Amino acid sequence: MQHISSTLAVPDSTYVPRHVAIIMDGNGRWATQRHLPRVAGHSRGLDAVRAVVEASAARGVQFLTLFAFSSENWRRPADEVSFLMRLFMTALRREVVKMHANSIRLRVVGDLGRFSPRIQQLIKDAEARTAGNTGMTVTIAANYGGRWDLLQAMRKMLARSPMLDPESIDESVLAPHLAMSYAPEPDLFIRTGGEQRISNFLLWQLAYSELYFTDVFWPDFDAAELDKAFASYRQRERRFGRTSAQLVAPGLSGTA
Ligand code: FPP
């Protein structure tokens, strides 16, 4: 399905964001504050993932995208990286059973070739198992980077049409090759842990997303915190380039 591009047309604004994308930050600091090893924060982070998946589905979110591991996270100490890989495997084995029971579809986006064959197989199995589910779609961004995504999309676009006339390249030619072309652009972006950065997440798709930053560390982010983010979202005036006056008289609105 082709979704509306926020730069080409004005998408509908809905009471509950259709697509929520989250950078889950602050696991390490949560643990350090408690004199625990950093990895204890990641384990609690997985508990928070479970809570936020449940709460999002209950509130009618259609797409939930979680930044689990960035292209740059390989730079972390080797034992932390291998712990995160094991946690990812546990999640793919255990959580997927629960997601499937709740009609949730799981997808994983990113440069997956760098993961072990075992993890790649678990990803394929989890995606295949939940492919027919019609509830919320949970996307895990793993070894993902926004620049990687744009580059792989450009490569795919040119591989398909090597003689492409540069003048003919517009959004509708490139966008279908992006890793998350199956989802509308995020309505709401959340980053926990106090930093106010996009950190190479969905660079193309965040063009008109509402941005919400909270100091709460990811392991402490729960349904109540999600509701605070949604309340903030509802107060935003989503103009997509239009003026406030045009929002009052929608008949006058055009594309911008
Ligand atoms: C950022 O916190 C978090 C990560 C790099 C890993 C995220 C992983 C999880 C939430 C658990 C597993 C989730 C899935 C979906 C399998 P940080 O370590 O950068 O925190 P810090 O900034 O306080 O150091």
From TrEMBL:
One Pfam family cited in the UniProt record for this chain: Prenyltransf
**This protein's record includes keyword Transcription regulation:** no
Q: Give me the comment on cofactor binding.
A: Binds 2 magnesium ions per subunit.
Q: Which CDD domains match?
A: Cis_IPPS
Keyword entries, A-Z: Magnesium, Metal-binding, Transferase
Query: Which cofactors is this protein said to need?
Result: Mg(2+)
MF terms from GO for this chain are: ditrans,polycis-undecaprenyl-diphosphate synthase [(2E,6E)-farnesyl-diphosphate specific] activity
Catalytic residue list: 25, 73 (proton acceptor)
Positions contributing to Mg(2+) binding:
25, 210
Q: Which InterPro entries match?
A: UPP_synth-like, UPP_synth-like_CS, UPP_synth-like_sf
Q: Which domain of life is it from?
A: Bacteria
Q: Which residues bind substrate?
A: 26-30, 38, 42, 70-72, 74, 76, 191, 197-199
Give the Enzyme Commission number: 2.5.1.-
Q: SUPFAM superfamilies in the record, alphabetically? A: Undecaprenyl diphosphate synthase (SSF64005)
* Role summary: Catalyzes the condensation of isopentenyl diphosphate (IPP) with allylic pyrophosphates generating different type of terpenoids.
Q: How does it assemble?
A: Homodimer.
Protein family membership: Belongs to the UPP synthase family.
Query: Which named protein is this?
Result: Isoprenyl transferase
- Please name the source species: Cupriavidus numazuensis
Encoding gene, per UniProt annotation = ispU
